[in-house]
Amino acid sequence: MTVTSETAERAALYAGSQQSSAVAVWQRGELLVDKHWPVAGDGAYGAMQLGETDDGEPLEDVASIQKSIVSVLVGMAVRQELLTVTDPVHLWLGKGWSQASAAQEQSITLHHLLSMTSGLSTELTFEVPAGSRWAYNTNVYSRLVPVLERASGTDIGPLSQTWLIGPAGMTHTSWYERAF
User: Fold this and answer.
1) Distance (Å, rounded) from C-alpha 53 to C-alpha 173?
2) What is the C-alpha to C-alpha distance for residues 63 and 176, in angstroms, rounded to an integer?
3) Sign of torsion, CA 37 38 42 47?
4) pTM score of the predicted model
5) Residue 62 to residue 46: CA distance in whole angstroms
6) Using CA atoms, how far apart are residues 22 and 133, in angstroms rounded to an integer?
7) pLDDT of 137-159, one tens digit each?
8) Cα dihedral: 155, 158, 159, 160 (round 10)
9) C-alpha dihedral (14, 16, 17, 18), degrees to nearest 10
10) DSSP state, 109?
11) Residue 145 and residue 132: Cα distance in Å, rounded?
């Protein structure tokens, strides 16, 4: 599918009308649109503002995009044969990492965390068997960060920088700690 500059511009205008702070549209290595809008400092979104770069671009906590970054890092760890997605989570986090019974917990794999099909609640308690239901669950998904740290022997910040951020040429990118 080819996107015209006009279509990309209309999409960007729509994103801006929906209170987006920025949007970039790339196609085949060409930047079609790069728009930024000021963000009101009040409310939940204002709390996502972490400051500005030297050239005035906003620094933001990108929140759920971290899941995409983590999944890319997991894929890189798999490729390096540091782990497999079929590994039970307890192999990396130890038995008792959740509030499920030992048998329930043993059936939860890294794939279940990646696909948000762990069967656990946000409090890490058992709800349904792993793989039987999808449920958006940041608290469970975030357990992939310590898995990556253990598999690589490196904290998530330096790991991300070495494996992804640096090679991709990303600037002003780092991990921002938050409580779950």
Assistant:
1) 11
2) 9
3) positive
4) 0.79
5) 12
6) 33
7) 999 999 999 999 999 999 999 99
8) 120
9) 90
10) B
11) 23
